[in-house]
Amino acid sequence: MTQRIADKLGSGRKLLLAAAGLVAIGGPILFGLADAPQGKAQSQVAVGSRPVFDAASIRPNTTTNSPGWTRFEPAGINIQRTSVASLISTAYRIPASLVSADPRMRDLFAARYDIIAKAGHEVPKDQLALMLQTLLADRFKLTLHRENKLQPVYKLVIAKGGLKLRESQGPQTRDPNCAPPKCMAFNNTDIWSFAAVLADRMGRPVLDLTGLQGSWDFTLRLDMDRLTNDDPGQKTNISDWSLSSIFTDIEKQLGLKLESDKAPVETLVIDHIERPSEN
User: Fold this and answer.
1) Of 17, 25, 261, 272, whose CB count within 10 A is highest?
2) Residue-level pLDDT at 130
3) What angle (nearest 5°) sits at the alpha carbon of residue 109, between those of residues 114 and 268?
């Protein structure tokens, strides 16, 4: 890797966008996107070559005490109280921790917006994702490029005992008996977004190699008693799932498995972004 790339991804440059809130822990996860295209990022392609929304409203939201959410609908997308960091992560189907930018962009990435965008007709989820990419390029003036780096990862695969998930039945009421950090309820969730949540909590990228399509409903309960005792040092690690029983829990409860390995990991590097005008 050239010195230019090393410098660009160095500690002075790298920004972990997960801090801006990819998903609300314990809340509904409503993502469902197709693979982002390979090669150059969408924002470096003419907007006219991508599908666009017929109409889109973007308004800042200064609410700080409630989680945001993103809902893909048959003919559009409804986004509430969602950070710019999460918008990029959702549009490009990549964990926020794999998006880097100049630290001077931090305030903009943390800014929240309400977005209602309509396509005028029913559109598959993969097309809605591309439309969101176009919206970011057009209204936020987003430009970015992709880089690859060999690093430690966890590979998410189907366990030998077989899958134990159930296909989603649509939005559901959250289970009041499932509260973080010991329990998380996932509703109408694509496996890639579950892998993104794992990556945020495991300290390294999690690659979805399950091959699973569609959306799923499941609950994950973690044995974290040893992280909630009277040891102050352990309390600070309560958000680090790699110190919990996650490896056995997901295999027993979900029929999935995390395998430690090294692999090339694609990252998105933000070159430019601006605050959008309201409308």
Assistant:
1) 17
2) 93
3) 115
